[in-house]
Amino acid sequence: MVALQRAIQRVKNGKDGLVNIVSDSKSSLEVRAHARIVGNEHADELARSTALTKKTAVEYDRYPLLHAKKVIRAASLEEWQQRYAEGSTGEITKRFFPRVEQAYRVLRDIDMTYQVVQTLTGHGGFAPQYLFRFRLRDSPHCACDPAIIQDVLHVLGDCDMFLRERAALEAEIGIQISVRYFPEILNDARNRDKFIRYCVDIADRCNKMNRDA
After folding, report:
1. What is the reported pTM?
2. 9 CB burial (10 A radius; 0-12, 13-18, 19+)
3. Three-state DSSP class for residue 23
4. Do the beta carbons of residue 128 and residue 142 sit within 8 Å?
5. What distance lies between CA 115 and its chain's CA centroid?
6. InterPro entries this protein is in (predicted)?
7. Domain limits of the chain?
8. Of 19, 22, 17, 30, whose CA–CA distance to 4 is shortest?
9. Are 37 and 31 in contact (CB under 8 A)?
10. What is the pLDDT of residues 67-115, one digit of tens each?
């Protein structure tokens, strides 16, 4: 700062005409916002006055905050969906919920009993296919046909042992009970509870059969 002061004094006393003073001193260039400098105080007053009296919309109204949040959320969901779809796990769950936003919305409204968890994941004592993987059953095949693997999807959508229950639900909701339509059924709040009750009933019966086997 002393060097700058002397340089300015020399310029004032000299006759060199236009002079450039070069310095790397940040403190010499910094002006505190409220240092009682008339120009700064006047600029602050004008800014406050304009904010209170200007009738036109502010600039950021052209891009509302809610829209920005929506764009960010959409990008996050798309990235989540890509990871979900390309992941090597959760194949059973994907047959019920091919889209993560549907899963997020629907699962909040479902009472997650152990039967529901077994149904939507394919884990547990629901189906011999899962038990066979852990050597808890001698065979993964279904009692309805020894050539068919008995997994959750087969039991709910194809197994002849539960044909009557499946037909009754189809008549009640007007939609075929097959893997193809599981996402549609779960997405409809009117049919979701009925389908979940059907799943719980089948899960209970399958668990009992597998325990007794």
Report:
1. 0.64
2. exposed
3. coil
4. yes
5. 25
6. RNaseH-like_sf
7. 111-212
8. 22
9. yes
10. 888 888 888 889 989 999 888 888 999 999 999 999 989 999 999 999 9
Burial of 85-113, coded b for 16+ CB within 10 Å and e otherwise, reads eeeeebebbbbbbebbeebeebeeeeeee
Placement of tokens 């629901």 in the chain: 126
Q: How open is the CA angle 59-62-68, to the nearest 5 degrees?
A: 115
Extended beta strands in 70-195, E state: 141-142, 145-149
Which DSSP letter does residue 14 get? S
Q: Which two tokens stand for residue 162?
A: 């539960």
Asked whether 116 and 110 are in contact (CB, 8 A), the reply is yes
What residue type is assigned to position 155 of the chain?
V
Return the bridge partners of 149, or none: 141
| Helical segments of 54-90, H only | 65-86
Distance CA 81, CA 102 (A): 11
pLDDT digit string, tens, across residues 15-36: 677 777 767 665 666 656 556 6
- Amino acid identity of 147? A
Q: Which amino acid is at 67?
A: H
